[in-house]
Amino acid sequence: MRGKAKWSVLVAIMLVMSMFLAACSGGGKDDSASGDKKSGDGKQELADKQEITMATSQDIPTLDSSKATDATSFDQIQRIHSGLYTYYNNKAVPDLSDGEPKVSEDGKTYTFTIRDDANWSNGDPVTAADFVYAWRRLTDPKTKSQYNYIVPTAHIKNADKIEDPDSDLYGKTDQLGVKAIDDKTLEVTLDKATPYFTSMMAFASFYPLNQKFVESQGKQYALGPDHILSNGAYKLTSWKTGESWTLEKNPDYWDAKNITIDKATINVVKDLSTRVNMYNTDEISTVGLSQDFIDEYKDSPEYNEFLDTSVGYLKLNENKVPAFKNPKVRKAIAMIIDEQGYIDQIRKDASVPAQYWVPKDFVSGPDGKDFHETAPASYFKYDPDEAKKLWAEAKKELGQDKFTWEYMTTDEPQTKTVAEYFANQIEQLDGVTIKINQQPWNNYLDRDTKGDYEIGGGAAWGPDYQDPMTFLDLWTSTNPNNTMGYKNTEYDKLIKEADNLGTDPQKRWDKLVQAEKVLMDDMAIIPQFQVGGAQLIKPYVKGLVHQSMGIATDFRHAKVYKH
Amino acid sequence: MSGQNELITKDMFAPAEIDASQSEEIRRETVSYWKDAFRRLRKNKGAIAGAIIIFIIIIMAIIGPYFNKYGVDDQDIMRTNAPPKIGFLSNVHWLPFDGYEKGRDVYAEKKITDNFWFGTDKLGRDQWTRIWLGTRVSLFIGVIATLADLIIGVAYGGISGYFGGKVDTILQRIYEILVGIPQLILVILLIMIMNPGITTIILAIGVTGWLGMSRLIRGQVLQLKSLEYVLAAKTLGASDSRIIAKHMVPNTLGLIIVHTMFSVPSAIFFEAFLSFIGLGMSPPKASLGVLIQQGYESIQFHPYLALYPGLIICLLLICFNIFGDGLRDALDPRLRK
């Protein structure tokens, strides 16, 4: 489970970054059906070329599905590759898996049948062995995948031992609980029942790889259009590093008849105002907005916004600052920060104040209700008077009057404004001085992992799979992400119990709800806001979807009309 | 016509009284080097205007922040992005001080009662206070970094030039190595080791800033020390310290002053550049560079955020350069009539 901490945060922050910076965002919550309806009116005709152009702030870091860690990479990989499942409209649905898998009664064995018409772009069929190879490669310590913790998180048999250097099974990937029964039948054995297992199958790290091809490419694998095979909706046809890349529809994809966009070009443009200009001159079809740009365009009919599922939060390091051990201090800090003001006046997008840790509109329980319909919708509120009262009591208990804390954040211009705002809010507590320390992202991660910070405020957490556990298991006392010295045995117990209750979803759900309550009563971390975004989409492009799970900008079923 | 016919007679002349002592009398007023230089400087209108503007900016940097009650980090999100408004000018709509933005009265919309002379930024902080405090920081960095330049550069160049020989060879090789490393790389490395802030920036500028000065001084000293009066002084047994104090320093002073006048604006500019690329002051403190960088982010929507700090930094740089130019003309003995 090592490395879980930092790399999940990475994905998280990249996700946030893409909200801040990237232009690659899709359309609100409307699905492709609305596009079809419009075309049915007969008012608009489909354009001759079903092509789409977008711009993003960042080049693709990697296309190797075992090594990718960030949102941009995962987006491209999910366009080029297909796995057993894929997300459509934030729901995991079978993709290469021919229907739902057979699940054994104890919930520990999954048997997938792979579609007969699933093929690689070189003509090879996609076989169960391709999955076995990919998963073993991902788990293999030699691959040095930074996302390999996802395999033990899925509770695949022996995965934790294979990744644990102290175990006898270290590096023995043939012991991994995945087996090709025949060419088209894949059997997965789990250590314990995992209710969210199928949703994890939509995660790009679990996508198959063609062993023959990957090994023939060696170090060149996934470095360019000639060095990667496609089995998904699109093929990579060109990739000019730092400039642009092009995706063309893969006619051999089993569902190709439903893929409507034939060609997508994605340009790398760092500056947001340049991207907005490109949008205004019809060079690109969609652009993500932030801050002032939102004010400028929010009345436009092309404007829409969406709520994502990552949560920005503050980490208070109890190991470095003894005062943070006092729950009153943590509560005072949480209540003194005006999140709503921040969102309304500075951020201006669809973010909402997070007075909870598991995001809303993220996952529904066995009863079909959203997590926060069962759990309270808010555990604390913005209340400066109450905060100051708590603070005065806390100061008396601590017997100290002056506090200087360091607020560590990343060095993006946007995070600077955020840090200045939050620091100023916390300084309303009498006697507190906050110093802002901006660190480059890698340094930030490094110090976060080592626990070398006082207040950590540069990260947001995004989910890896559709279950509250991806948020809640972070703060158990043994989780490497918990570098701030928080320990509550009751919380640890609840999480452990929930983890072992895979066969009883309702009971497990109750435990998770209880766990969040314990966490928030302790105010172990300070949730700030659930990240939202805003974007413009050209009126002649319909069905471009923003997803909070899976491909962030999903144009697989989009349509371009004449304009 | 008649004059031509008049004869010049002897009695028209009177013998002049020749007083030998008078030929020694100095008729022209005695002008010292500095007085002369100052006279010449005064004649240069551009330089005087530059000096006055610099003076005003310095005064504003000292007292400007106390003109209103706001501090450098007094945020209020209820008054974000308010355009500049000055009470008695608020009805003159062709001036950018009426509190209107894109035809809308932002002050009325946001119910802001106070006037912000230079507007507010996106956290609702008063730009007036931030700009003058920023100017103060920029000037401070410029002056201190230049002082460091001056001390190290003059000493290094002077020693190298005056003593010559092995000392010169070694010092010049060190100089060449330092000159070979791009300044920006050195600065970035330094900032990575230390925390960003005033001290780091001054150090970063000071580390390499003195190179130009040392080269100039060395050249000057090399030239001076081969002049006959220095040789004469040496022959008469003058010590090194006396030669340095009496001959070297006064004769290089003009050069030093002129070069200093040019390195102040370049230090200010370098700080602004560092802040602009994100290596500068740590928030919420501000320097002109930080303010311009923040203004630049929203220049399409709120141009005033970048305009005023930009204007001040331009004025500072131009005036320092014009004034430095004037000083050089005034102090350079070759221009002396």
TrEMBL record, chain A:
Gene3D superfamilies: Dipeptide-binding Protein, Domain 1, Dipeptide-binding Protein, Domain 3, Periplasmic binding protein-like II. One of its GO terms (molecular function) is peptide transmembrane transporter activity. SUPFAM superfamilies: Periplasmic binding protein-like II. CDD domains: PBP2_OppA. One of its GO terms (cellular component) is ATP-binding cassette (ABC) transporter complex. Residues 28-67 are annotated as: Disordered. GO terms for biological process: peptide transport. It comes from the Bacteria. PROSITE patterns: PROKAR_LIPOPROTEIN, SBP_BACTERIAL_5. Residues 1-22 form the signal peptide. Keywords: Peptide transport, Protein transport, Signal, Transport. It is a lipid-anchor. The keyword Cell membrane does not apply. It holds the Pfam family SBP_bac_5. Residues 92-482 form the Solute-binding protein family domain. Residues 28-51 have a biased composition (Basic and acidic residues). The keyword DNA-binding does not apply. It is found in: Cell membrane. Residues 53-67 have a biased composition (Polar residues). Belongs to the bacterial solute-binding protein 5 family. This is Peptide ABC transporter substrate-binding protein. It comes from Pullulanibacillus pueri.
Automatic annotation (TrEMBL), chain B:
It is a multi-pass membrane protein. It is found in: Cell membrane. The chain crosses the membrane at residues 47-67, 139-163, 252-281, 301-324. One of its GO terms (cellular component) is plasma membrane. Coiled coil: none annotated. It holds the Pfam family BPD_transp_1. PROSITE patterns: ABC_TM1. InterPro entries: BP-dependent_transpt_permease, MetI-like, MetI-like_sf, OppC_N. GO terms for biological process: peptide transport; protein transport; transmembrane transport. Residues 135-324 form the ABC transmembrane type-1 domain. SUPFAM superfamilies: MetI-like (SSF161098). Keywords: Cell membrane, Membrane, Peptide transport, Protein transport, Transmembrane, Transmembrane helix, Transport. Belongs to the binding-protein-dependent transport system permease family. OppBC subfamily. This is Peptide ABC transporter permease.
